[in-house]
Every structure is written in C-alpha cells, then in structure tokens.
Design brief:
The chain is of the alpha+beta class. The protein contains four helices and four strands; from the N terminus they run H-E-H-E-H-H-E-E. Strands 1-2 form a two-stranded parallel sheet. It has a two-stranded antiparallel ribbon with strand order 3-4. The longest helix has 12 residues, at 45-56. The termini are far apart.
C-alpha cells in the first residue's frame, strides 16, 4: 500500500513533525489531565464505599451528606458474605470482622412481632 508523501514507515506525519512531533520538542509526553472530582450524595454505607473505591482508583470524590452530624446509635446493619467480599476489596473487611461479632441467628418478623422465618 503506498504511503503518503514525506512519511517514513512508522514515523510521524508531516503535520506532526511541523507541530513538534507526537512527543513534543523535549521528547516527553505531557501527563494526562487529572480526573474531575465525582460527587457522591449520601454518607451511608454505599456512598462511603463508593467514595473509597473512587479514591483508590485515582478519581477524587466529594461526599455530600444532609445530616448535620453522625448519629451515635439506634440502628443496626447486618452484612452478608457478598458485602464482606466488597469490603475486603476496599481493604476494610478484616477490621470489621475483628471488631464485630458474627451473626449467629436471624429471624424475620412481622410488624406485630410474630416470627415469620428463622
């Protein structure tokens, strides 16, 4: 196949040579632009996990939370094996396992308290 005039095999095009070549005059490529920050709405489990994963991938993340402060208690969270696999990938699974007991039993109850399933 004929090549365009003035172009060596595998070499830069004439326009590229006039502009200083693909590598520029100093022979070094400019670094890629930094990624734009990603907004994460909600500082719950999913929001914080998303922010950690983004940061570890080199993408800056900003978390917005509507609550004025962290709540100290009044809620519970049960994590199943798939959740721990995700937490392991984020590097926090082992610490959570060590600090919190494993769930020994589980009951699904109706609003009135009757046990539906054990």
């Amino acid at each position: 196949m004929p090549r365009p005039p003035g172009r060596a095999p595998g070499g830069p095009s004439p326009a590229s040579r006039r502009a200083g070549g693909a590598a520029g005059a100093a022979g070094a490529r400019a670094p890629p632009p930094a990624p734009a920050p990603v907004g994460v709405v909600g500082a719950g489990v999913a929001g914080l996990a998303a922010a950690v994963a983004l940061q570890r991938a080199g993408v800056p993340a900003v978390v917005w939370e509507a609550a004025p402060e962290l709540r100290g208690g009044g809620s519970a969270l049960a994590l199943w094996q798939n959740a721990f696999r995700a937490l392991d990938a984020l590097g926090v699974g082992a610490g959570l396992r060590a600090a919190h007991p494993r769930l020994g039993a589980f009951e699904l109850c109706a609003a009135g308290g009757a046990v539906l399933r054990r």
